[in-house]
Design a protein that fits this description.
single chain; 348 residues; mainly alpha; 15 helices
Length: 348
């Protein structure tokens, strides 16, 4: 039975769904080799046109997940505390040691094990690193958005979007070449803050329709560019600073903004949403998943996409269970570190 005091679980559910979407996206891009279209890899398994069309269509529905995740953070405004920062670092360390460093040591790859010990500067988790950088900027971003007038907020936000989408996406300016950057995170965070402060709203069915139509449009554009032999431009449609992708992120966010779901179970499992990403993106698990897809990708035709969805749901379930251990251990260590810190301050 759900208590009346249970907070709205809509965004908690969205965070879990976003993690599944990220895994599906990774399986298509790295497992089936869509990343090869960028020219930085050569393991493309999709050769048939109908498979490529499906790959672009399904992937286009998934790739707004990271933008949307940061959007949620901006909407609710991150409050940086010592406990949250230490907890995040310990969580990153937990997954890095268990799923990267120890496996490297086990197979005798001591060089990469030592290399990975620099788990912040040399981490496989690009998302976490940029998120940590965002946390450093958040206090200033919060103060700025809370104190600026509506006109100044929107002027700055429009300027950021122009820098990100026009100079970055269109012309490849280094400030935000592909959206895998701190600047992209800051932009999405600020969009989230503006949505909250301006109380921007859009009906559920309209938001859902916009999300589906624009997502499929992105996939279709990518597919057409691929058939024209413009593989790099086709892959560029998946860049996080693609303006169409930003629109789909906001649209998907709006779908859940107007839902009123209350579930203690969803709230409980959503605490491990970040752990799902860390689990799947670890060296061991990601290699296992991608290798499996690469070995079987040509056997099942279009059914490979159903298999990928099944794998993604399975990995999500396993990682949610696995992360319960992390929650207990990291919370214990965080409280221990903070208590030691307080004791030290009291002795000074």
């Amino acid at each position: 039975m759900v208590s009346n005091k249970t907070r709205n679980s809509s965004f908690e559910l969205l965070r879990l769904i976003l993690m599944v979407m990220i895994i599906i996206h990774h399986c298509i891009v790295h497992g089936l080799g869509l990343y090869s279209l960028s020219g930085r890899s050569s393991n493309l398994l999709i050769l048939e046109k109908n498979q490529m069309l499906l790959a672009f269509a399904i992937n286009s529905l998934m790739i707004c997940a990271v933008n949307c995740f940061i959007l949620i953070s901006g909407y609710f405004k991150i409050t940086v505390t010592s406990k949250k920062f230490i907890n995040l670092l310990l969580t990153l360390l937990f997954y890095t040691i268990l799923l990267t460093i120890i496996p490297y040591l086990f197979i005798g790859n001591y060089k990469d094990a030592i290399y990975t010990c620099f788990f912040i500067s040399k981490s496989p988790y690009w998302f976490v690193i940029d998120y940590l950088f965002l946390l450093v900027c958040v206090p200033l971003l919060n103060i700025g958005f809370d104190r600026l007038t509506i006109s100044k907020r929107r002027m700055i936000l429009v300027g950021m979007i122009i820098i990100s989408c026009y100079f970055g996406f269109v012309w490849g300016n280094e400030v935000n070449v592909n959206g895998y950057t701190l600047f992209q995170f800051i932009t999405m965070y600020c969009i989230g803050r503006e949505i909250r402060l301006s109380k921007f709203s859009c009906q559920v069915y309209k938001s859902l329709l916009i999300y589906i139509i624009i997502s499929i449009t992105i996939g279709f554009i990518g597919y057409i560019l691929w058939t024209m032999g413009k593989s790099y431009l086709a892959y560029k449609t998946t860049y996080y600073n693609d303006p169409l992708l930003i629109i789909t992120s906001v649209s998907l966010f709006m779908v859940f903004k107007h839902l009123n779901i209350k579930s203690e179970s969803i709230n409980k499992w959503a605490k491990s949403a970040f752990g799902v990403y860390l689990f799947q993106s670890s060296i061991v698990v990601s290699k296992l998943i991608y290798t499996s897809i690469q070995e079987d990708g040509t056997k099942y035709g279009n059914f490979i996409f159903l298999i990928i969805i099944g794998i993604s749901l399975g990995i999500t379930l396993i990682s949610l269970i696995f992360d319960r251990m992390r929650l207990i251990l990291v919370d214990l260590l965080t409280n221990l570190i903070l208590s030691k810190s307080h004791s030290y301050k009291n002795t000074i």
